[in-house]
Write a structure and sequence with these properties.
With 400 residues, the chain is α/β, with parallel strands linked by helices. It has helices spanning 24-32, 74-88, 106-117, 153-164, 201-212, 225-231, 246-252, 262-270, 273-279, 307-320, 354-366, 374-381, 385-388, 393-397, and strands spanning 12-18, 50-56, 60-66, 93-99, 122-127, 142-144, 183-187, 216-220, 238-241, 258-261, 291-295, 325-329, 343-346, 371-373.
């Protein structure tokens, strides 16, 4: 994806579900106007979830996900069904495609129950109506289409745009904490783990959010922070740092200047900041016999000095005076059963959508397993967490 495009994590995720041969892939192709998914009369043609980023008016940027049939059979079929169920965790709006000639199956009914249990908005699409003499009676969130004759496709897109449009207020990374004219300093270390020739996604998104608030952004490395602060004619309202530089940066930022990290801001933006802060004290009580899950939402080549696999375990060893066992996951991998873990430490989740990030936090909460994110954990282990969340008074009060 180009830097000009909206990232997957910021797009509305629309999942297409249903049985084999119900016409999911044909409907996806008809709605997107592209041959996104392979279609045939053979059951089970779609073997893995297929994702396509696109613009869907009036929604704007969306991620369309075509899934394997929920009635797939055999050992391999069970794995495909499991992948389909995993897509539900990140779906903002669901489309259930049903063969109108066959009616609702047991798997369709079970899936509708899941939608309702998850409070997931959905559209029920009766496909293949060109083969019927009488049309089904459609409710408010149902529509009849034929992917062969294209009957109802335009209306389906319009209804999808209407029903899937979020009714929640726009969220901000940091802009709602600023006033026009404020100066914000971003501390961005350029080391071996930094991608060559570009800024990472949280940095890009935060810069854009600050600029849209009518504020000034000043970027520097941690090694030039003191010089940068001295050169400013106006005292900054806030300094935002990469988590791994927290300790050094805190020493250089005056106490009358607010300080936080990208990861803490994203904990609020895509997660539950209060829940994560409440769990952080678990770090100091970890023991050698404990097992800690360190999970990242993206996949990347881990280098020497990697923050997740090297730096955080080293900081934990100093903070807890213990060396627990570690399990590392990345991308879409996240254990369903967290029983064996004493603590979950998660990245900021910039590559995950809010739905997926909240699912992971809720999974840990339901299992009564404490969960924190990188920024909160690192600030705590450096003794500066209270200062790092002062910008959120209600959260800071939790540490009193």
């Amino acid at each position: 994806m180009s830097l000009q495009g909206t990232t997957h994590g910021e797009r509305i995720h629309i999942g297409f579900f249903g049985n084999r041969n119900a016409g999911k892939s044909s409907l996806v192709n008809a709605i997107t106007g592209q041959n996104l998914a392979v279609v045939s009369d053979v059951k089970g043609t779609t073997t893995d979830p297929v994702k396509k980023a696109m613009e869907l008016l009036p929604l704007g940027p969306v991620l369309v996900i075509d899934t394997p049939g929920l009635d797939d059979e055999g050992e391999l079929g069970a794995l495909r069904v499991e992948k389909t169920n995993d897509i539900l965790k990140q779906t903002d709006f669901a489309v259930l495609v049903v063969d109108a000639c066959k009616g609702l199956s047991k798997t369709d009914t079970a899936l509708l129950a899941q939608f309702q249990e998850r409070k997931l908005p959905y559209l029920l699409v009766w496909n293949k109506v060109d083969l019927l003499e009488d049309m089904p009676n459609c409710k408010e969130n149902e529509i009849c289409v034929s992917t062969v004759t294209k009957k109802g496709i335009t209306e389906c897109k319009e209804l999808l745009g209407k029903l899937a449009k979020p009714n929640t207020p726009q969220k901000h990374i940091v802009a709602d904490l600023l006033e026009a004219g404020d100066v914000v300093v971003l501390v961005i270390p350029i080391d071996a783990s930094a991608p060559k020739g570009r800024l990472i996604l949280p940095q890009q998104q935060t810069i854009r959010d600050i600029l849209e608030a009518g504020c000034t952004v000043v970027c520097c490395q941690d090694t030039e922070l003191t010089q940068t602060l001295q050169a400013l004619k106006q005292k900054p309202k806030l300094v935002i740092t990469d988590s791994q530089a927290f300790g050094r940066v805190a020493k250089d930022v005056p106490n009358d200047v607010l300080l936080t990290s990208f990861s803490i801001l994203f904990a609020r933006y895509k997660g539950e900041l209060e829940t994560l802060v409440r769990s952080v004290k678990k770090i100091s009580t970890l023991q050698d016999t404990d097992c800690v899950l360190i999970s990242e939402g993206c996949t990347h080549h881990r280098q020497c000095g990697d923050i997740g696999t090297v730096k955080i375990p080293n900081w934990i060893a100093k903070c807890a005076k213990a060396n627990p066992q570690y399990v590392f996951t990345s991308g879409q991998e996240f254990p369903k059963d967290l029983e064996k873990y004493a603590l979950v430490i998660h990245c900021g989740g910039c590559m995950l959508n809010e739905k997926e990030m909240l699912y992971r936090i809720q999974t840990a909460t339901n299992a009564e397993i404490p969960i924190v994110n990188y920024g909160i954990a690192i600030a705590y282990m450096h003794g500066i967490l209270k200062r790092s969340v002062e910008i959120f008074p209600k959260v800071a009060a939790l540490l009193d």
